[in-house]
Amino acid sequence: MTGTGCPPATGPGPDGILRSTRRHGPRGTSREPDPPSTHDDRSGKAPMPPVDLPPVPAPDEAALAASREHRSHLPSGALGRWAEVLDQLAAVRGRGEATRRPRLVVLAAEHGVAELGVSAYEPSATASRAAAARAGTGPVAAVARAAGVGVVVGDLGVLSATDPDAPEAEDHEETDGLRVGPSDPIDAADALGEDEVTAAIARGRALADREIDSGADFLVGATCGVGVSTPSAVLLAAVTGMEPVDATGRGSGIDDAAWITKAGVVRDALFRVRRAATNADVPTLLRVAGGADLAALTGLIAQAAVRRTPVAIHDLPSAVAAVLAHRLAPGADTAMIALTAGSDRGTRRALKLLGLRPLTDWATAGDSGLGALLVLPTLWAAETAAYGRSDGDDPGSGSALENDSARSAHAVTAWDAELL
């Protein structure tokens, strides 16, 4: 495989635009080149206009000091690194208190590269994951219930494509301007059009606003699209300077042959990115090599920071979107809680770029925010140690945790700091 300085095999299309002639059919089989994409991938295309976001509020120093004072009843060092997180949560929110309504927002979008054999899963798994999350079935929904985290699905053209006659979703989502169906394969064409990128970023911001306006005080943004780690790797390489072979991970657990295919896609897509955008031009990066879910996740993280709401970073897509969100909304990193280093070095590299230290070194992996859900109960426990909780005040009250019939008759129901 050639290095990043070597362009992919290209040939002129009928419109004179150079396009990759290295194409694959479903699951990596060879086929003839596709007709030219409707997206213009010429390097001379003007950059997209910037996204207009309100400024991110500065951390509340008074709330930070109050958090430390409030915790003074605990033995020194009792909470370890979790003490820093509690202080950060207080500074972001402007008040020190336990989380009451955490929400997981699963962003569902399909990626054209999933047809190239870069994942261990079939492309159809995207719709299955989104449907399971919406229906409250499957392992992610089960772990979310156990962690007291509510789940909402942001459909970016997946469920409407698989079942266009389905009744309106519970979350009354708006899909105007969003593509129905997969993005284009990023090794040969732009992932999205300009209007689609703008709509996806706006959709992510709107989802953050809706959940926060409904009382959410902690957000977890996640993706469920098959193949999402491939555009994530391209964007990671674009903003960090990593070589494609270093940025390309095993994702869903692919074998060597699939990894070679994936690394080639990352290489070719990165070549296109470097012709089209600087690493500070977030909308253009997302247009050329992202996807609707990554654009929406970027918007969601940025808007959460604007709204003084902590947001979890927990895997490669969320870490890459966090880097882009910080560039859209400088200071957004103050609202980011890095829960885990993830299972690949790309996540760690993105966190390092943001100056974030992960809370755990658990090598969690999985779609739809599973890694975050495994860590969050420890955060809720640290909050309980610092602030206490009354009955019915658990995270996600109103969920299965509110009426836990398995609670021991001897469980502690009144907070007493002397117990420590």
What descriptive keywords fit this protein?
40% helix; alpha/beta; disordered C terminus; Nict_dMeBzImd_PRibTrfase_sf; disordered N terminus; 420 residues
In short:
Keywords: Glycosyltransferase, Transferase. It comes from Nakamurella flava. The chain has 420 residues and is α/β, with parallel strands linked by helices.
What's the structural blueprint in terms of helices and strands?
Elements: E1 10-12, E2 18-20, H1 61-70, H2 81-93, E3 102-108, H3 125-135, H4 138-147, E4 150-155, H5 159-162, H6 194-213, E5 218-223, H7 229-240, H8 244-247, H9 256-276, H10 282-289, H11 292-306, E6 311-313, H12 316-328, E7 336-338, H13 345-354, H14 370-387
Parallel strand pairs: 3-4, 3-5, 5-6, 6-7
Antiparallel strand pairs: 1-2
Region (Disordered): 1-72, 161-183
Pfam family, one: DBI_PRT
Biased composition (Pro residues): 47-58
Structure notes:
Helix content is 40%, strand content 7%. It has 420 residues and is an alpha/beta fold. It has a single domain (78-386), classed as Nicotinate-nucleotide-dimethylbenzimidazole phosphoribosyltransferase (CobT), large domain (Rossmann fold). Helix 6 (194-213) crosses helix 10. The longest helix has 21 residues, at 256-276. The N and C termini lie far apart (58 Å). Mean pLDDT is 82; it is low at 1-44, 167-173 and 398-420. It holds the Pfam family DBI_PRT. Residues 1-72, 161-183 are annotated as: Disordered. Keywords: Glycosyltransferase, Transferase. This is Nicotinate-nucleotide--dimethylbenzimidazole phosphoribosyltransferase.
